[in-house]
Every structure is written in structure tokens, then in C-alpha cells.
Amino acid sequence: MEHEILIVDDEPDIRFLLEGILEDEGYSTQSAAQSDEAIALFRDYRPSLVILDIWLQNSKLDGIELLKLFKEEEPNVPILMISGHGTIETAVSSLHEGAYDFIEKPFQSDRLLVIVQRALEAARLKQENAELRLRAGAQMTLMGNSGLMAALRQQISRVAPTNSRVLVSGPAGAGKEVAARMIHAQSKRSDEPFVVLNCATLAPDHFEEELFGVEGKEGQPTRRGVLERAHRGTLLLDEVADMPLETQGKIVRALQIRTFERLGGTHSVKADVRVIATTSRDLQEEIEARRFREDLYYRLAVVPLKVPSLAERPEDIPALARYFLESCAESSGLPKRELSVDALASLQTYEWPGNIRELRNLMERMLIMAPSGSANHTDPIRADMLPEMVRKGAPSMTRLNAEADVMSLPLREARDKFETQYLQVQLMRFGGNISRTANFVCMERSALHRKLKQLGVTQEERNNGAQSASAER
């Protein structure tokens, strides 16, 4: 993204010289001769870097005072001090107040450009490190090899490099924010901020402050909203359906004209922001109920994406469960655990109303609370260790014990019951894939088909292993 540099100097020749040097290198510039003008430009344009003269003639504030004000409002913007009358004391003073570096006039253009490049790179790395700390431990990619997830990742890879707005829908806990972060990471804005506004947790009377910020008055610093903090980057409006109607109208205008005014302010502030919105509600129903503006919907849903629920892709559950077990073991220092086949079958039949979030929490609980065997050996997590609500929908084989009803049956009936339940579990394990199931149970594909027909395992059960226990519920 193009960097904008604010030049503050009372000498017109110096401003003209700096503008020429920087614009020849592809930077965009704004210039000011005194403090009032500099403050207005700083607040309106949010520069990537400031070049600031220490001695400003006919100005309310000198360079050191401006430096303090800028650093109070924007600690992460690097400021390069320049002066033709500098001393060691003034240089040390400016560095002590947070300046990135100090250059004496007259300066060499090559040295100036090197320092500017270093300052911008240092600011970028600082922002990147802050972002990495913020998302440390968070899942950063959509996992799963199902057709639904492969299609979603392909859609993300196509839309990410564009600047189009994206509306990501899907149930709570399915991974909508992960999808949004993937879009940002694969976009041309990936080195710029990724800012999240959680509309579901914000009080209605604070929305506009958080979105647009508050203009500083009477010595108070300006407080930036999320639109400013996301400048040149990506703004995620999480659960956008919870945004108040009045605020919806104002953000429609901001998206349309790409400018806004802070609360209490009179100057227009530009906002170069890519907006991604998420929702777990049906926005068409919200529009019909007059709880969501239709014009905002069409501005946000330029490219609609849907994250499937976990129940829609049961074949992804084994890999996800193992991943969460492993990552939790690493972060907690606990021994790694495996999941038995019957436990996986139970996980694949559960409906997961909390989706990925619920699965992750359950795996963490199992790692901590499930009986682990002897001190020198860690047993797999079995189906009977899972909560009843998770295992109750699985084929009864996953719940067999010494008193199971199969023990009271004649041999032929017991064998048929065992084979039926065994094949149901294996079909579930391989997502209803006949070829993979036949290979695992060491049968010819045609022989497995005949056996399933003989045992009365339905076509629906073959095509969707996750529903194979539906007749038993």
C-alpha cells in the first residue's frame, strides 16, 4: 500500500525539496508550515511517517511539543526530526520523547531515504508483531478435507486478492472469523492492520464512538475509531446483524463516500478500508423484519461466502479432533492422547450445536479429565469416556459392555447385530465412502455391497455415515 508522509517545516524551500525527493520514490506527501495545520493534517490523513522540524517560526507549538502530541495520539507512527540549528541536547531531547531519529540540515537525500525506509519497516514489523501476539493460539486456517471446505478455501483464494467486500455467513463457532483472517492474510493488505469490531458485545450507545472515534477538544487527544485504525487494512464487522439501525445508516454513507467525521468533529476523514462482515443470522429475514438495512446488505454482500456447520462435514471431525488434542497437549504440557475408533464414531454422529468451538473445548476437557491409564502408559480416549450427550446417538456397538443385549442373543443373531453395528461404525469413520470402508475391512467392494444389503443397511446410511444411527435414535 502507498505510504503517506507528513512534512512539517516553516521553510517553503525545505518542504518543496522533501516533497520532490519523497514523491520521486513513490511516497504520497502532505505539507504544513505551522502546528495548527500540522495537527489537522495529522488527524485527517493518519500518515505513515512524519518529518518534523524542531524550530517552527510563527507557530503555537514547536517541534518538540508537536512530537509529544503526535506520540500521545499515535504512538506507532514514526517521527523523524530535522533541524538546521540542532544541538546534541535537542537531538537527545527529541529521541527521549519518542522520535525515531534526528537529522541535521542540510541533509543528503540518499541518507534521508534510507532512514525513512528503515522507520517505515520498523513500524511495519511492530504492527506485525502486535498482530501475531493478538492472534497467538488462534486457529488461522480452515481445516478439513471435505468437499465443502475445499470449495470454501478455493473461494477465499479467489476473492482475497481483490478489494471486494465479503459477507461471511454460517452458524456460531463454525470458523467465520478464521475465514475472514484468511481473506486478509491472502490479500494485498496483509501487511496492514486487521481490526475486529464485535457488534454482538458492544453496547448500542457506544457503536458510533467505536466506529468513527471522538474528536479531541480542549487539550484532549483525538480517539480513533476502528475505521481509522483499519486504514489501509481490513475491518471485520463481526456479527453485523447486531449493529443498531441508526448506525447502519451512517456506515452505509461512510462506505459509499469513503470518508466520515469523528464524533464532535467537523473535518472529513478518509478511510481506505476493506470491510468483511460476518453473521450467524439470515440477513434476508432480518431485512424483512426491518431490523437490517437492505442497502447495507448489498454493500456488504458483494461476495457472499458460507462456512458450513460441523454437522454438514462429519468426515472432517477425526482430523479436527486429533489436531485439537495435540495442540492442547503441547500448550498445557500434558501427555498426548489418541482417540479410539468408537470414540471417533460417537464424535461423528453428534450434531455439534457449538460447531468447531464446542469440539475444541470438548477435546481440551477430555485431555484433562478422561482416565489416562497407568503412569507409564496413556490409554486412548474411548467412547464410554465421552459425555452422554455426545455418545448417545452413535451405533450401539460404541456402547457395548459385558451386559449388552447382544450377549443374550443366539449366535447367528448376535453375529448379524455385531456385523451391522461394526459396518455402521466403519462407514461412519470413512464418511460413507464404500471403497475406503471395503479396503479397511479387507473385503471386495462388491462383497461389501452384498453384505450391507443382506444386513439391511440402507442407501442413506451408505451415503452419509454420520446419519447411520438415525434408525436407532
Write the layout of secondary structure elements.
Elements: E1 4-8, H1 12-24, E2 28-32, H2 35-45, E3 49-53, H3 63-73, E4 79-83, H4 88-96, E5 101-104, H5 109-134, H6 147-159, E6 166-169, H7 176-185, E7 194-198, H8 207-212, H9 226-229, E8 234-238, H10 245-257, E9 259-260, E10 269-270, E11 274-279, H11 283-288, H12 294-300, E12 303-306, H13 317-332, H14 341-349, H15 355-369, H16 388-391, H17 411-429, H18 434-440, H19 445-455, H20 459-463
Parallel strand pairs: 1-2, 1-3, 3-4, 4-5, 6-11, 6-12, 7-8, 8-11
Antiparallel strand pairs: 9-10
Helix pairs in contact: 13-15, 14-17, 18-19
Keywords, separated by commas or semicolons:
alpha/beta, elongated, five-stranded parallel sheet, transcription, single chain, Helicase, Ruva Protein, domain 3, phosphoprotein, 20 helices, Rossmann fold, 12 strands, 473 residues, disordered C terminus
Query: Which class best fits the helix and strand makeup?
Result: alpha/beta
Order of adjacent strands in the largest pleated sheet: 2-1-3-4-5
For this structure, the CATH topology of the largest domain is Rossmann fold
Q: How many domain modules?
A: 4
Radius of gyration: 30 Å
Please write the CATH class name of the largest domain. Alpha Beta
Mean pLDDT: 85
Helical segment count: 20
Distance between the termini: 57 Å
Q: Count the strands? A: 12
Shape: elongated
Strand content: 5-15%
Biased composition (Polar residues): 464-473
Region (Disordered): 454-473
Domain Sigma-54 factor interaction: 142-368
Protein name: Two component response regulator NtrX
